[in-house]
Design a protein that fits this description.
single chain; alpha+beta; Immunoglobulin-like; three-stranded antiparallel sheet
């Protein structure tokens, strides 16, 4: 029956365990037996101390209870004016201030409907009997114009762009 045999430690294991117990015992002895009487003056210098001990030595004494709040100091000088903020969102559009402008051209190309000076274009569209495509369209010139590039099926045809403008 091989399973019931007792295992004996090897000589290497025995020596390792002996060295472990001696080293632990030596540290315990040093902790209990070495004190300030056994250390010469000047033998322990600041570079030899651990960082946490150095921090504890450098700490100031703990503060006492907090005192009452002092009086308010004088006001400081006025600061400089900040930059102009971004414009806000447009409000509700008054339908009585809307009008339409239409521009027409013969043949393919650019056509622009321009609102009155100071007014804004809100939207626009192209129309005509023979428009094949609108290649680009949108507001131009600080939202004052609605421009479209139109392609006509027959160059003798006319195409138009109409812009809805807002009287600001």
């Amino acid at each position: 029956m091989k399973g019931n045999r007792r295992h004996r430690p090897t000589p290497a294991t025995a020596i390792a365990l002996l060295a472990l117990f001696i080293s632990l015992g030596g540290s315990a002895y040093a902790i209990n037996k070495i004190g300030t009487n056994q250390i010469r003056n000047g033998a322990v210098t600041k570079p030899k101390l651990a960082n946490n001990i150095k921090r504890q030595l450098n700490q100031k004494t703990r503060p006492g209870a907090r005192g009452a709040q002092g009086p308010t100091g004088p006001s400081g000088p006025t600061g400089t004016t900040g930059h102009q903020g971004d414009p806000g969102t447009d409000g509700i559009v008054d339908p009585n201030r809307l009008y339409e402008i239409t521009a027409t051209r013969t043949g393919s190309g650019a056509v622009t409907a321009t609102c009155n000076t100071g007014d804004w274009v809100l939207t626009g569209w192209t129309w005509g009997s023979n428009i094949v495509a609108t290649t680009s369209m949108g507001p131009q010139n600080a939202r004052r114009e609605w421009r479209a590039e139109i392609v006509l099926g027959n160059e003798a045809s006319t195409g138009s762009v109409t812009a809805t403008c807002y009287d600001r």
